[in-house]
């Protein structure tokens, strides 16, 4: 089906569009769409459709879509929900390639069946569906404003994909107010067919779209999205705002969208893995977008602050740490570059402090020196309106310097003060020069610039492959399925580990006392013993476990004690035997897991054992498959990582084995569709070169309806 | 001296002010001051002073300050640094009560001696000094703009105390631009005499100042500041911006202010202890100040969000979690209040979603219901410019509702959209109604409102007292001093613990083998043994420690082994004996400490042992003395607190003993001025009711110059 899909070009650059449900009534959406398309001077042909015929705003109205006599690429459907299906049928007859269903009243109010029926019909007849429940599309390339939002849109280089129609419409207005030019804006609404992934694929290649902004409430088809995002973010910055960051917000999101928003922590890690830059608020996202399209990518990490106020410089340095902007640190080079041209009581350390007595010409000289120095890659020029600060003159200098270096290195300005400074800011903004009223805002923008720099620079890597014995895994799973279980028993889970090449403690199941003793001697003392029974879940609670058995006598005593405890406290339980196993040496306890995420499909997780994951929530996630770099970064980004590096005199641990274990566990999940969850807790990690042992493993199977 | 200090009234409400160094040259600060005082219509009498005499802007100039014939409360000194001392002498003869030294060229450029000479002379002659290196003072009560900043200042209710002149001057301008009214603004500059504490004491009582904003780079006289802040923050909100939050920023601050900025973590904890609300950026602080003066304090924690956009509601809920605003949660009551007046597909859960089809009248109805419900204590009304959103009508409703409820409960508005919405925001702002363009900004403000609510509500408590044997501590310290040491030996530190009533492991020092055996039997097996020697620091490294000795034989072997190891590896070391001590049972390892902070004086600290403090920096501080609530809050706010509550089946630990240990350790530091540092690491904490044991204690003495 995918290969026959019509190109997204027909959606963003249609030669002809119909408005099905075009209205003569000025208060109706069907009128507003026609009005905006006409007012926007769409370069293609508009076909309003309404059984009453006539004209709307001078455009002849077709009585039915079948009557349309020219090329029709996209049909906008704005009729009541119950009439949408018939409208889509007509679109099919008219050979439209896309149907954008503006109408609401579908899955967002529980009416999923009708939505599915429409999409299934459309797909069978070669039509792709956007929506339902959307506000339409604006696309600057053909000057098409097929939305019921504001009429005036400034064309430019920011593309917006939004899940919320309300926020999308408001963004069109807000973009206008903030003088942000748009290349396209589209809402995905119920995402019945076209999702963000498909749109991104187009926008990634679209020459006019230099920055992509997405507003997301919940993810569908996350695996596809991950793949597309990974490619897109190497080409252009992708900014995301996702609501439901907080626990309370996530609850509200679930109630608002009618679906589980997914764990925000997972979302956050995975979009970072994809190179997406996440903004916290709408304002922050728009602040970034405004200037990102026109800002060159720096050639290195050395940012330098120039300021006429020591305090402001310090605040900027604080902001740099918060937003991941690295300050240039070569004291010798900084001194050479600046010490001759700043006042004696200024500072040639970064932040470069040219003091409150600096004139605009001083600024110019210092800014010039910074721009000429090839080892300085980005400049934050932050000014405070001190006594005689000449804001007008400063503005001229900023304009000229920015014009000269716009394709060489990013410069961001921030000015703090009264009326003169405000006019400077307004004037620089008008010229699309990055300028802000607060150093935190300026630095947040520079942080986004650097996030994109790092995304472009990150190695593409190849995804790690693990060689696992998939058929051995499958036969374990099949056996459990045959017994109607949705979990594996401990020894079954261990079998899966062995099939994946993950070390487990040596162990054997004894069915008689003399076997237990023999196995213990083979494994080597000390050993542990555990009852094996499907009917006993919490084995240690009833005395079904014995640890640290040092010799034959202790094994004999323990064997009998375990059996006696089980018989006494779980009289009906079927006992399959007693597991005799190696006492695991102490290492650093970690947790490695993999599961099928409802949004993103197979994901892997990592954290340190004990309270780190459970209490401190110190955990990281990645969409699977992962590159080696991605697996390494998910290990190193947890706060407790220091424990693996060796703290307080301890040796460095075998981080490589942790990395390969993550890949192995992910591969098992990926290859065996029946498995929904794997958790090794703990994976005991030993000194570098000594490997790691999966001490306890829990594996769950998908419920049958999921497995299908 | 303090009791004879002139009242701060003479500074903020002077009857007469002199400008020493008044200038005829319009580019000079001495001219600008006169100009601003004249333009500002100061209600008292202005005496410009310049040996050349004449007139400036129509005001007669005095040839010397001694010639001033009326009441002179404050003299502004704006002459070159080398002439300041003589000017201050003249001020003394003229009986001025305050000298505000505008001039720079003192300690900020290393010239501390002259600064000290001036202050010492001034204090001896009953004059208090503001500065040097300041921009002057604005005080609305007498319409005095004695600054060289902008001429136009809007009088109002925000008082600003700033350490940076440059940022202060810019703030005057910025406040004007943002329509923020000021009651006073003053820069403290080098703080040679008057510090923030003294100014706050006045501003806390000042009727016109309803909000206080402080910009701080480093703290001096922190103990006094803590005391004043604790009182002030119960009366009115105190907002602080401190630069040097980050490591890099702190380095820059040290280089900028020429002094150590102190650990930001300590600053952050202690000002929170004082009830201060810390803003991150200048913009955030000004956003808060703008509306705080005029916003009523809520009567409870139940905030409610009303929105016409589900997504925007979710973003607001996210922001509430970030900024500590608690959402009202009584589903029954919310349903009763709202379900009849919102559309069926809206949501009567909090956020209340009245959907994009809501008219301003719908908003009004729902807002009215929220305002009338006495169990709802604050409302965030956040709107998105959906299709037919009538921004003008919304504005009228917002104005009326705000006017009716302004003294009853806080309402904050946020509007997101295009031009119409922007005009609404501008109009509401003009009327001082809290309104923002982004829900994060609106919620950040509401967070500040709630922070002040909680500060007012917090119990005053009484500071905890510990009964310690101070003379016993002193004699231990004296002995160490006599031996020229600046640290205590292990057994001396233990002696201090006993004097403070803190449990330590039972131990005795044996000088012979048979003593060692006897002590071990008294203490009870197992025991540990350690060599006691001033010459051996890392005892375990050379085999000077033996653990887990189970019986007499093991004690005998260990005694001989330790002696042999020490003789072999530290041949010259003087060995005082072998300590025999109780093997400490395992509990939760914590760290409790106290030290003299260069900014704040005695402070106490708490954290969990192992990697929590050292690697994860999970640690809390308080200025000492502390109330019981403060001590408890410093324990409960560390992330690893869960370990003391008992996780994964463990019992709750003896948190009360941790609390009393913090107080005891603080009291020792407070009462014994020779001690600069105490660290118990670990304090082993047992199950509730079982106490805690100080296993290892490190005590440092102040270097003699500090102790003085």
Please state how the strands of the largest beta sheet of chain A are arranged side by side: 9-8-11-10-12-13-14
The third-level CATH topology of the largest domain in chain A is Rossmann fold
Number of helices, where a helix is a run of at least 4 consecutive DSSP H or I residues of chain A = 25
Assembly state here?
A: homodimer
Helix content of chain A: 25-40%
Total number of beta strands of chain A: 29
Query: What is the architecture of the largest domain in chain A at the second tier of CATH?
Result: 3-Layer(aba) Sandwich
What percent of residues of chain A are in strands? 15-25%
Give the CATH class of the largest domain in chain A. Alpha Beta
Q: What structural keywords apply?
A:
Dna Ligase, domain 1, seven-stranded mixed β-sheet, 20% strand, 25 helices, homodimer, Rossmann fold, six-stranded antiparallel β-sheet
How would you sum up this structure, described in words?
2 copies of one chain form a homodimer. Chain A contains 25 helices and 29 strands. With 708 residues, chain A is α/β, with parallel strands linked by helices. In chain A, the strands form 6 sheets. A 7-stranded mixed sheet of chain A has the order 9-8-11-10-12-13-14, sandwiched between helices. In chain A, strands 24, 25, 26, 27, 28 and 29 form a 6-stranded antiparallel sheet that branches. In chain A, β8 and β9 form a beta hairpin. The longest helix of chain A is centred in the middle third of the chain and has 19 residues. Chain A starts with 8 loop residues before the first helix and ends with a helix. The model of chain A has no long low-confidence stretch (mean pLDDT 92). The interface between A and B is large, with 87 and 88 residues.
């Amino acid at each position: 089906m995918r290969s026959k899909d019509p190109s997204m070009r027909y959606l963003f650059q249609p030669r002809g569009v119909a408005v099905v449900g075009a209205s003569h009534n000025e208060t109706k959406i069907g009128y507003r769409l026609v009005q905006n398309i006409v007012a926007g001077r769409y370069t293609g042909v508009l076909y309003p459709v309404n059984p009453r015929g006539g004209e709307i705003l001078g455009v002849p109205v077709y009585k039915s879509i079948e009557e349309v006599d020219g090329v029709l690429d996209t049909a906008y459907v704005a009729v009541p929900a119950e009439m949408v299906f018939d409208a889509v049928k007509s679109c099919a007859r008219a050979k439209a390639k896309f149907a954008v269903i503006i109408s609401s009243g579908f899955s967002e109010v529980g009416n999923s069946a009708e939505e599915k029926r429409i999409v299934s019909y459309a797909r069978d007849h070669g039509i792709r569906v956007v929506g339902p429940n959307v506000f339409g599309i604006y696309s600057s390339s053909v000057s098409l404003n097929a939305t019921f939002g504001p009429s005036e849109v400034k064309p430019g280089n920011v593309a917006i994909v939004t899940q919320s129609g309300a926020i999308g419409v408001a963004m069109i207005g807000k973009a206008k107010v903030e003088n942000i030019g748009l290349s396209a804006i589209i809402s995905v609404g119920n995402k019945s067919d076209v999702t963000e992934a498909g749109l991104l694929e187009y926008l990634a290649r679209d020459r006019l779209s230099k920055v992509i902004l997405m507003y997301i409430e919940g993810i569908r088809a996350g695996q596809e999205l991950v793949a597309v995002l990974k490619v897109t973010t190497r080409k252009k910055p992708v900014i995301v705002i996702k609501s439901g960051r907080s626990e309370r917000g996530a609850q509200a999101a679930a109630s608002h969208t009618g679906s589980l928003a997914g764990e925000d922590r997972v979302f956050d890690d995975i979009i970072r893995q994809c190179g997406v830059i996440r903004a916290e608020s709408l304002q922050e996202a728009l602040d970034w977008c405004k200037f990102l399209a026109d800002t060159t990518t720096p050639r290195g990490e050395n940012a330098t602050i120039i300021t006429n106020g020591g305090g402001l410089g310090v605040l900027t340095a604080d902001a740099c740490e918060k937003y991941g902007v690295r300050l240039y640190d070569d004291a010798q080079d900084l001194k050479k570059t600046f010490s001759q041209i700043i006042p004696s009581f200024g500072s040639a350390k970064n932040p470069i402090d040219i003091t409150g007595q600096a004139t605009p010409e001083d600024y110019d000289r210092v800014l010039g020196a910074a721009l000429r120095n090839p080892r300085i890659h980005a400049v934050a020029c932050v000014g405070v309106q001190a006594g005689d600060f000449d804001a007008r003159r400063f503005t001229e200098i900023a304009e000229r310097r920015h014009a000269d270096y716009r394709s060489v290195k990013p410069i961001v300005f921030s000015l703090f003060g009264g009326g003169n400074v405000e006019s400077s800011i307004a004037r620089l903004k008008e010229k699309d020069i990055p300028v802000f009223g607060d150093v935190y805002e300026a630095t947040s923008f520079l942080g986004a610039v650097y996030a994109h720099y790092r995304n472009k620079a990150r190695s593409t890597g190849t995804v790690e492959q693990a060689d696992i014995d998939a058929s051995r895994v499958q036969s374990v799973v099949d056996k459990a399925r045959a017994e109607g279980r949705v979990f594996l028993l401990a020894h079954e889970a261990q079998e899966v580990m062995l099939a994946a090449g993950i070390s487990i403690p040596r162990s054997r199941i004894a069915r008689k006392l003399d076997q237990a003793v023999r196995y213990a001697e083979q494994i080597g003392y000390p050993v542990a013993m555990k009852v094996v029974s499907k009917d006993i879940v919490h084995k240690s609670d009833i005395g079904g476990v014995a640890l640290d058995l040092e010799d034959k006598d202790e094994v004999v005593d323990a064997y009998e004690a375990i059996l006696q405890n089980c018989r006494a406290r779980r009289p009906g339980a079927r006992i399959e035997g007693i597991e005799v196993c190696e006492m695991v040496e102490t290492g650093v306890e970690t947790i490695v897991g993999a599961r099928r995420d409802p949004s993103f499909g197979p994901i892997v997780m990592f954290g340190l054992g004990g309270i780190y994951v459970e209490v401190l929530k110190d955990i990281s996630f990645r969409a699977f498959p992962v590159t080696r770099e991605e697996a390494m970064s998910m290990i190193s980004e947890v706060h407790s990582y220091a424990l693996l590096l060796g703290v307080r005199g301890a040796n460095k641990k075998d981080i490589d084995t942790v990395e390969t274990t993550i890949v192995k566990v992910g591969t098992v999940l990926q290859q065996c569709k029946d498995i929904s969850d794997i958790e090794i807790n703990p994976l005991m990690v030993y000194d570098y070169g000594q490997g790691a042992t999966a001490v306890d493993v829990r594996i769950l199977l998908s419920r049958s309806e999921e497995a299908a």
